[in-house]
Amino acid sequence: MMQLHIENETSPLKAVILGTAESCGPVPKPEEAYDPKSLEHILAGTYPTEADMVKEMDAFAQVFQKHGVTVYRPDVLIDCNQIFSRDIAFVIEDKLFHSNILPDREREFEAIHGVLEKIDPNKIIRPPQEVHIEGGDVMPWNDYILVGTYTGTDYPDFITARTNKEAVEFLKAQFPHKKVKPFELRKSNTNAKENALHLDCCFQPVGKDKAILHKNGFLVEEEYHWLVDYFGKENIFEITKEEMYQMYSNVFSISPEVVVSEQNFTRLNNWLRKQGFTVEEIPYAEIAKQEGLLRCSTMPLIRD
Ligand SMILES: NC(=[NH2+])NCCC[C@H](N)C(=O)O
User: PANTHER family per the record (predicted)?
Assistant: First the structure.
């Protein structure tokens, strides 16, 4: 039996699911896109190829290997995009939650049955149907669970809004001993620079007390300021709109000291090194075209 354990975003990683780009299918039709950045690349004829994305994910797998992390991969489903494992499930403490994800992506979950079979079935939880939730919006941070959400009455119009207010209530009920803190995110179906698809597209903690953050991703200014106050201004790396679009906030922590990042994120990678982090740089710019990056491609199972 596998003992799940996740309390935060950065403690030393022992086991993780890493998605796969194998057999991710043909270039989607514009009407099949479920995020504006993919749509942009479908229309421009620059949608990433499977071969390029497989190479990028192999580089990620190699970094895990180097750091002694056990990596599970999903079964390959024919013509199914399984790159972003983050969203299909998430672990908090010793429980795995089966996300009620965008219906277009539901098939992705069945492919991790090999991992699910190692987990005590009592520790696998499916929220009720009205709870819409994706792992990209859920960040356990010690006493807190930080959650990206969208609660506008036009929620159903946004294919980019994935976590609703029922999800926030659900997490509060599941974890009465934690503080569940929701953040209202800016959504756009058509403009990727004005869209925080998930919380991890505009914010992520690194190390023990630092964070990467983009103000415009947040709809409510006080909620953005809460994060600035919580981490402290001097511990925040504020990114620009263009950097959010490049997915700067979607790096991935293997430990409080080691961060995996994209090789072209020069400004961020320099800051990280200056703060004392070891930065493992890999190429991930093709996958970035689908509005997801390194955190999105992983689903941590065990951290110290
Ligand atoms: N955790 C994340 N930010 N995941 C990104 C998922 C991207 C994917 N194109 C989608 O729209 O679902």
Answer: ARGININE DEIMINASE
* CB distance 85 to ligand 1 below 6 Å: no
Q: Which residue type, as a one-letter code, is found at position 3?
A: Q
pTM: 0.97
pLDDT in tens, 145-171: 999 999 999 999 999 999 999 999 999
**Distance between CA 77 and CA 21 in Å, rounded?**
10
Span from the CA of 197 to the centroid of ligand 1 (angstroms): 7
Q: Is 41 in the pocket of ligand 1 (CB under 6 A)?
A: no
pLDDT digits 0-9 by tens, 233-277: 999 999 999 999 999 999 999 999 999 999 999 999 999 999 999
- Structural domains in the chain, sorted by start: 13-303 (3.75.10.10)
Kindly report the number of other CB atoms within 10 A of residue 107's CB atom: 14
What is the 196 CA–ligand 1 centroid distance (Å)?
10
DSSP class of residue 91 equals E
**Ligand 1 centre from 97 Cα, in Å?**
17
Is the CB of 200 within 6 Å of ligand 1?
Answer: yes
- For residues 70 and 75, give the distance between their C-alpha atoms in angstroms, rounded to a whole number: 16
Give, in degrees to the nearest 5, the angle at Cα 84 between 81 and 85: 110
Q: Tell me, what's the pLDDT at 16? A: 98
Q: What is the pLDDT of residue 55?
A: 98
CA torsion 223-224-227-232 (nearest 10°) is -130
